[in-house]
Specification:
By secondary structure, this protein is of the alpha+beta class. The protein has a domain at about 50-160: minor pseudopilin epsh fold, CATH 3.55.40. It has 2 helices and 8 strands. The strands form 2 sheets. It has a 4-stranded antiparallel sheet with strand order 3-2-1-5. The longest helix is centred in the N-terminal third of the chain and has 52 residues, at about 20-75. It is elongated and about 95 Å long.
Length: about 160
């Protein structure tokens, strides 16, 4: 008695449905292309979100650095916000951070910190307090605020 162990019967291997049709291959390749395009679009959008959050973090870091310098030196330090040229910086150190054009920025600061050249500022004092203020950032319907508490000088990033 013989037991068949493999599909070597020539009559069975030449059946009409033994392979894929060209139409089936095109359908599979189309699905793969759609998935790849979706992943690519998602990746580019997440990069933009990461870049936006990096801008928020960098601006917050400049504020915190100015506060630390004010406390360490026991003298006031100013963070200047130039809305026209889209820059945030500490004049005393020369440190400047550029805000990308894609991001909208609105500054609300104390009246005493509006300067004749059209810039505005947030001043940190040697005791840790500040003049306070809010920088509102908007990008693709994402809204965040960097808030500086006038009493404590604490800098925080909040989603609105």
């Amino acid at each position: 008695m013989k037991t068949r162990t493999s599909g070597t019967d020539p009559a069975l291997s030449r059946r009409a449905d033994a392979g894929f049709t060209l139409l089936e291959l095109i359908a599979v390749l189309t699905i793969i292309a759609l998935v790849a395009a979706t992943v690519s679009f998602t990746s580019s959008r997440s990069f933009g979100t990461a870049h936006f959050r990096a801008v928020l973090t960098s601006t917050s870091a400049i504020m915190q650095q100015a506060r630390s310098r004010a406390i360490g030196n026991q003298s006031s330090q100013i963070v200047v916000i130039d809305l026209d040229n889209r820059r945030v910086g500490i004049p005393a150190t020369g440190q400047v951070f550029d805000i990308p054009k894609e991001i909208d920025l609105l500054a609300t600061v104390a009246e005493s910190e509006h300067y004749p050249d059209g810039t505005v500022g947030i001043r940190f004092f040697g005791d840790g307090s500040s003049t306070g203020g809010t920088l509102a950032y908007t990008w693709r319907n994402q809204k965040y605020q960097i808030q500086v508490n006038w009493l404590t000088g604490h800098v925080s990033i909040n989603q609105t």
